[in-house]
């Protein structure tokens, strides 16, 4: 099966959580958004789905994944679909609901990180909501990051199979996603993250463990890995880092 | 199976999306948060899960559902679990991924509605972020509600099985959730919703269809249905209604 990932070009964005799973598994996939319009790829191919021309079940927004006849939208939904197929989640039902719940907590965290530079509207420029962004970012640094990241530290501590991975005794798509969040946060908030590192030894070790996985390492060094930038979710605006 | 729903007492909140599914199906369930501490229910019973005392897999936040040995967190995850068991989603795989994706879009909309009265921090009072709330609510009314609700109108229009329900030709948990969103928005933003009603004939009819379902009607008239209030997600602050 050749998977087709539909996501906006030029940013990692929410599509990156899906890319990391596909890359870690060495899956065959087409990155439609970063393809050429001459090949009937790129943004127009995405838009034809959003408009409902290409499917009677239009996604609300990218990312979405085409897998044969299936069109699946939302990161957590896509990863839940891919998990068993790419051996990125344990087999038993309890683990799958647990993994999906963790992924949805990551989804909430990612939305809060995005909203700290766009607390009023995604449709307005950062400069037009900077005062609000300064306020919200302070809350993110002081309250929300310790709460969310402390939660994942607790999940690792309490994992009956050991503290190496979030779900069971092997890596799963949730670990790949947590790695992405930590990488993005270190880019966007280097000072705040340095201040928290000591409280998060297991999260920190997990991120290193993921980065050392051979296919992830190769991916991160390839030009398929787009750099973090100030158009994505994780933006480095020094004034928001306290 | 007696399901146990864990959610904060006194508000509908995110727990209500789960309650509507359980009520519509006539399922046997215990509303733990609204129970009495003398019966080992109420808030302490919730907190023992969040603290990780009652389970090695602590939820990040309510709502969560206990179903036998399973503990499932996040509304969309819970509904995905309950859907097949309560006959609230079609059998085939494509419909289930589609229903879950729609539910996750509702999740995003609900977060935006919450954030319009708390755009800076859930931990601050509304009064301490009112200027920001005024700005964000205008965006919600002018841009986000037309975009989200117009999307659901489009989904109904494009449903190959007809425009009565969002997924296939029968009601599903997603319809119950959309009904809840519409009800809450009409409470919180009566003027903005009246202005949009004409553009949303199919969403409007769906909400009426859900409200007329006998078990839903009985539930809405019971004292198990908590009233909307200014501690929940959908708050009626007239100044935010434009």
Topology:
The structure is a homodimer of 242-residue chains.
Chain A: E1 3-6, H1 15-24, E2 29-31, H2 43-50, E3 64-67, E4 70-73, H3 75-85, H4 93-117, H5 130-158, H6 173-188, H7 190-196, H8 201-211, H9 214-221
Parallel strand pairs in A: 1-2
Antiparallel strand pairs in A: 1-3, 3-4
Helix pairs in contact in A: 1-3, 1-6, 3-4, 4-5, 4-6, 6-7, 6-8
**Largest sheet of chain A at a glance?**
4 strands, mixed
Q: How would you state the average pLDDT of chain A, rounded?
A: 97
Order of helices and strands of chain A: EHEHEEHHHHHHH
The portion of residues assigned to helices of chain A is 40-55%
Please identify the structural class of chain A as seen in this structure: alpha+beta
Q: What is the CATH class name of the largest domain in chain A?
A: Mainly Alpha
Low-confidence stretches of chain A: none
- Count of DSSP strands of chain A: 4
Largest interface: A-B, 46 and 46 residues
What descriptors fit this protein?
9 helices, 2 domains, globular, alpha+beta, Glutaredoxin, homodimer, 242 residues, Glutathione S-transferase Yfyf (Class Pi), Chain A, domain 2
Question: What does this molecule look like?
Answer:
The structure is a homodimer of 242-residue chains. The first copy, chain A, is an alpha+beta fold and 242 residues long. Chain A has 2 domains: 3-85, Glutaredoxin (3-Layer(aba) Sandwich), CATH 3.40.30; 93-213, Glutathione S-transferase Yfyf (Class Pi), Chain A, domain 2. The first copy, chain A, has 9 helices and 4 strands, in the order βαβαββααααααα. In chain A, helix 1 packs across helix 6. At the A-B interface, strand 4, helix 3, helix 4 and helix 5 of A face strand 4, helix 3, helix 4 and helix 5 of B.
């Amino acid at each position: 099966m050749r998977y087709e990932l539909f996501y906006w070009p030029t940013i990692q964005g929410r599509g990156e959580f899906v890319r990391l799973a596909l890359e870690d598994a060495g899956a065959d996939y087409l990155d439609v958004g970063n393809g050429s319009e001459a090949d009937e790829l790129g943004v127009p191919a995405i838009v034809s789905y959003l408009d409902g021309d290409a499917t009677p079940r239009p996604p609300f927004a990218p990312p979405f994944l085409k897998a044969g006849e299936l069109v699946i939208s939302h990161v957590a939904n896509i990863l839940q679909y891919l998990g068993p197929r790419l051996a990125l989640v344990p087999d038993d039902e309890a683990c799958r609901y647990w993994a999906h719940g963790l992924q949805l907590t990551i989804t909430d965290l990612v939305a809060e990180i995005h909203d700290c530079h766009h607390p009023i509207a995604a449709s307005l420029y950062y400069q037009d909501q900077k005062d609000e962004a300064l306020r919200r970012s302070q809350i993110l640094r002081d309250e929300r990051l310790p709460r969310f990241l402390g939660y994942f530290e607790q999940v690792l501590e309490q994992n009956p199979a050991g503290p190496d991975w979030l779900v069971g005794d092997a890596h799963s798509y949730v670990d790949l996603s947590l790695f992405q969040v930590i990488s993005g946060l270190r880019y966007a908030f280097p000072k705040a993250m340095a201040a928290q590192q000591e409280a998060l030894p297991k999260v920190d070790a997990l991120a290193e463990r993921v980065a050392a996985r051979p296919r992830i390492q190769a991916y991160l060094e390839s030009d398929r890995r787009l750099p973090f930038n100030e158009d994505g979710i994780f933006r480095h605006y020094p004034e928001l880092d306290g």
